Amino acid sequence: MDVETARSDLYTEGITACRGAFPQSWVQELREDVDAAFEEARSREGGAVGRGPERWYVEVHPQAFRGFVDLVEHPWVRGVCEAVLGPDYQIVELGFDTPFPGAKIQPWHRDFRSPRETHQERRLTSLAFNITTVDTTDELGPFQIAHGTQWDPGDDFDHGMFPPPSRYPEFEAAAVKKYPRRGDISARSALTVHRGTPNVGSEARPVVVLGVDAPGAGNHEHHSPAATKEYWEALPERVKSHLQTCEVVDELVPITQKHNIEGLVMGGEDA
């Protein structure tokens, strides 16, 4: 629960983690909700977006996960958000990424273009929290991240997101594979260059993603979280204060995703 160490990790390596944050029973419920959401999303156009061969991303509303409040109210999650993004941080995205058996290695990328505050002022304005629903092994295609690359201005990146292959050797030299277990939470800058590796196992590896912004970061423009009035009224006031971009509605409409990382749709190759 050392928030200052986590902040230091994010500013140096670009990623940090809290081990054993949740019991496995909590993760099992999360996995059940993820599987149900995936089946629903795959039944309609724009529900599940391809991020490479046999790899999908689905965005959901907060009430899709029974453990949403547990997650955003976890002391480590709150503490890291406040330490890095300030007390008025905003939760802008909730979803999950699933590499199925047969998923290929992704091209190196970051999730969006580096803002001026980061590449000029050396200030992080967004975070992505990840919660695995399986114990990660080499066979399941672990996440790989190039430490320290959150500060790269990305001037030569295609669309500000995809570095040219000529730079791959430097990212591979700084790259580390991550092996989280059920119950762990990680936090990273979405600007730290990363990629998914091949899933050569026999099961999927769903990972929940919670996206959080500092005020003015603007990533909420790519997302449209909503909540029913009944659900909203039952939320703790502190959670509501960090969900100001969440629309309160009479009836939920499934999310049609706005943020499609086109370079990953057809990307991916054998290791």
Automatic annotation (TrEMBL):
The organism's place on the tree of life at top rank: Bacteria
Pfam short name (any one): PhyH
GO molecular function, one term: 2-oxoglutarate-dependent dioxygenase activity
Record protein name field: Phytanoyl-CoA dioxygenase
Species of the source: uncultured Nocardioidaceae bacterium
